[in-house]
Structures are given as C-alpha cells and as structure tokens.
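Q: What changes when adenosine monophosphate is included in the input?
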Amino acid sequence: MSNHMFDAIRSAARPEATFIETLDGQVWTYERMLDFSARLAHVLTELAVRPGDRVAVQVDKSPQALMLYLACLRAGAVYLPLNTGYTTAELDYFIGDAEPRIVVTTPAAAEGLRAVAEKHGARVETLDDRGGGSLLEGVAGADAGFQDVPRGPDDLAAILYTSGTTGRSKGAMLTHDNLLSNALTLREYWRFTASDRLIHALPIFHTHGLFVASNVILLSGASMFFLPKFDADAVLRLMPRATALMGVPTFYVRLLQHPGLTRQAVAGMRLFVSGSAPLLAETHNRFREVTGHAILERYGMTETNMNTSNPYDGERIAGTVGFPLPGVSLRVVDPETGVPVATGETGMIEVKGPNVFKGYWRMPEKTEAEFRDDGFFITGDLGMIDAGGYVHIVGRGKDLVISGGYNVYPKEVETQIDELPGVIESAVIGVPHRDFGEGVTAVVVPEPGAALDEQTILKALEDRLARYKQPKRVIFVEELPRNTMGKVQKNILRQDYADLYQTADAS
Ligand code: MCA
Ligand code: AMP
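A: The predicted holo structure follows.
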C-alpha cells in the first residue's frame, strides 16, 4: 500500500524547484523538503512514534515546523497542531484527551509543559523557529532513505481541535483523503500551477494556513513566501514577486489601510482569497476599487476543509461564499425536520463529500449528533442559496464569535468568568470590530457590592484563556436581558453594544 497523501505530494514535487522562501533568506527546494522530512520521519520513529500515534505540536511558524507535519504524514502519525496562544491550562485538556506520544513545544515553554505532558504519558521535545531544538538534533545524522509508512485514504492524518458550543473542545479527525481530495479540488478550482508563488502569512496550526494554503502549494509543485505572521509591510514588499495571497478578512482590512496598496503594487498578482470569517461587502468593494481585484471568498470549517468557493472565472459576488466545490454536496434545510427549504430561504447548511471528516476523536455520541442518517454533516451555519446558486452565510445556529479568523466559543469564556469571585453570571458576545471583524465582549453581572472592575476580570483570565479569546472589553450590568423561557437574549446585547468598537480610539 502507498502513503495516500504523501505519494501525491511526492509526485508533484520537482526536486530543483523552490518550495519555501523565508524573509531571512532561507530557501527550501522540493529536494530539501523531501530529504528533511524523510530524516525527521526517521527521528520520529526513533522516538517510538508508531503509525496512528498522535504528535502534538505547539511551536512558532517556521519551515521546520511544516516539515514536522510532512514527517508525520510519512511516519503514519497523526499530526495535532495547537494554537501558540493556548495556555498551559488549555493544553492540559488537549494532551489528556489526545494522548499524544510526544509533545513538541518551544524551548521557552518546555519546562512549563513538562509536568502536564508527563502526567498524560507524553514525552516533551522542542523545536524553535530558527531550526534548533531537541527534536532536530538527530536529523542531520538520520537516514534520508526513509520508507514511508503505508497509509490508505481512510487513515488519520491529523486531529484539529475545535472548541465546542457546550464546553469541551472536540478533536476533528481528518483522514489522508479528506486532505488530499480537498487540496486537489482547490488546486483545480483556483488554477494553481507550478508557476505560482503564494504569500503565506497565516498561522500553520489551523486548517486555513496548514491545509488550504500549504497543501495546495505542495500539490501544485509551486512555491511560497513563508512569513512568521501577517505583516502588511512585508506582504506589500513581496507582492511584486508573488502571484497569490490567502488570508482572513483582517488581512484585507489592514492592507486597505496601507498607503502602499495600489494597482501597481498588485500588478503581478492573479488571486486574492479570503475565508475563515465573513468578508464585509464594503471591504470587498473597496479592495476592488483600489486594486482592480475581486477578492475570492470561500467557506470552510475545520471538520470539512473547504465546502464552497466563489468562481475563478465567473462573477465573484460580495457577501456570498459562491458555489459548492466539485464533489461537495451542500443543502440548506429546516434545522428541526432536516427537510430542504426553498431557494432563497434561510436554513441550516449541511454538507457531504470526501472533504468531510471522520468524526470527533473518542466522542461517538457527539459525532452521531452532528450527522444526519444520510451522511450529511450539520455545520451549525445558517445559510441561503440564491436563484443563481450562490451560497450566502446569513448567520450562525451555533453561539460562536469569530475574531480575526479565530473561533471563540462564548460558553468557554463565560465558564471562566462565572468562576471568578464576585461574579453572578456573564454573557459573552461578538460585536462589530473594525480590525478583527468581531470583538469578544463580556457582559457581567457582579454581586452587589463586589469590588470588581474590568482590569480585575481581564487579569484573572490571563492564565486561563488564550489571548485572542480574552474579551476586548468587559461591561457591567445589573441583570441580563432574558426571554420568557429564561434564556439570555444575546441579540439584544449585541444591539446595545453594536457601536462599542466603532470609534477611532476603540481597542
Ligand atoms: C491577535 N490578537 C487577537 C487576534 N490576533 N485578538 C483577537 N483576535 C485575534 N484574531 C491580539 C494580540 O494578542 C494582541 O494583544 C492584539 O490582539 C493585537 O495584536 P496584533 O499584533 O495586531 O495581532 P496580529 O498578531 O497582527 O494578529 C492578527 C491576525 C491574526 C493577523 C488577524 O490573528 C491571524 O493571523 N489570524 C488568522 C487566524 C486563522 O488562521 N484562522 C483560520 C482558522 P495584546 O497586544 O493585547 O497582547 S481555520 C478556519 O477558520 C476555517 C477552517 C476556515 O474556513 O478557514
Ligand atoms: P473553524 O471552526 O475554525 O473551522 O471555523 C469554521 C467556521 O468559520 C464556519 O463554521 C463558519 O461559521 C466560519 N466561516 C468560515 N469561512 C467563512 C466565510 N467565508 N464566511 C462566513 N463564515 C465563515
């Protein structure tokens, strides 16, 4: 048997062609990628990583970190990337749940993480963003003739955790074919070829930067400029040498604020893709005015990779996420009955296809609850299909805030706030934010006479929640608005605080 995903990567690789260029002058050819990932796969095997074992990774972005993903594919391991913002408290849960064989972290975080990892039977290895760390020590001396571990289409390639609306995070199990089928579809749909040069400024611990961006480039034999993080100056400096950019809406909002964004600056670019959060029609229209380019918006999820995309050749309509991708079935149904609604009517978006994940790690009941009997996955997004066939996302059936492309589940933040002394209850909402799209905002009911202020709450959350989940503002109220059933009316709170971040000095 072959290695389903890596065989495809290998056949697209032209050894002498550039795969990655970094801002500090590193050049990784495809040959170097093949050689390094083979050696690293060998190192993993030496560390007793066996096929099916999880390898948890919380490191800064670097070419070596991407090699670790590829080495896991080759070694038949299950890659488990973790947001660098997660605190030790958050990691404790992920490591306990996934039971990885090893946890790869930064040298700076290693000591703090050791006790947690060892408690769950995992060994700690380090990797820094300059190519150092204990994990890489054996790479130079390792055998480059690694025999890729056989993996079929249905074998696990990765687990990515998504926060849950009801508390505990769930590990989405993605197979080799989930990744391969989607990347091949996107390659064709977005016309990627070996001549493309992508500006890669996304993190590589989520679907967008890891699978959509990196896998599409790998399977096209194309190259990418690998930035440690988004930086509008650097992106604009690279544009004359690049052909494509993939980003979250915040990238485009920030580029539009940059005086360097002009028609001339983007003259060599052929494609701008946006996703992970809604792109405002205003941003789409302004970008077109300034650059002449219509940003191509697409829609996906951790559980499904990409589901829909605006067309490459046809009209890219602002405020829509385009058509279901080839091979993906998408329907909009009445959430209660599961019966499809008429064209133009709003309902729950459900999808089915080779892109859809295998289920939640060790949560068969949760998996079952999110699939229909005929195999469609219930996305939790509310949508509508218009007469032209374009899919519109019109809201969320799930209580979710998306801040700068990162998902924040209010329930998780509320649980932490409610545990603080002096708090009776809280409601966490997302309200329009000029930079992040939505700003995480906490509305808190204090006990009468409690000495609570915004800073006390924010300080207390520092060690409990990743920075991006922490509220940008905390507002105190005497009581929360409730309906007759006693449910908190978040829509009223969202209306009341809609202007919170709209002023020029809003944080
Ligand atoms: C940084 N901060 C944030 C965020 N990012 N706060 C809220 N939301 C965020 N997304 C905090 C920083 O900790 C800092 O706090 C302050 O905000 C300002 O930091 P700044 O330097 O401006 O931020 P940045 O480093 O420039 O990051 C902003 C960013 C970044 C470029 C938008 O968050 C980003 O790259 N987002 C992409 C996320 C992504 O890849 N999502 C895809 C998920 P302080 O200074 O107070 O410490 S995959 C997905 O959703 C599906 C599958 C899909 O469809 O793609
Ligand atoms: P994640 O759990 O990080 O995979 O985030 C997936 C969610 O992001 C989806 O369920 C949608 O709610 C949202 N999302 C992704 N792309 C878009 C988009 N283009 N427009 C609106 N929402 C989006």
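Observations recorded in class: The longest strand covers residues 423-433.
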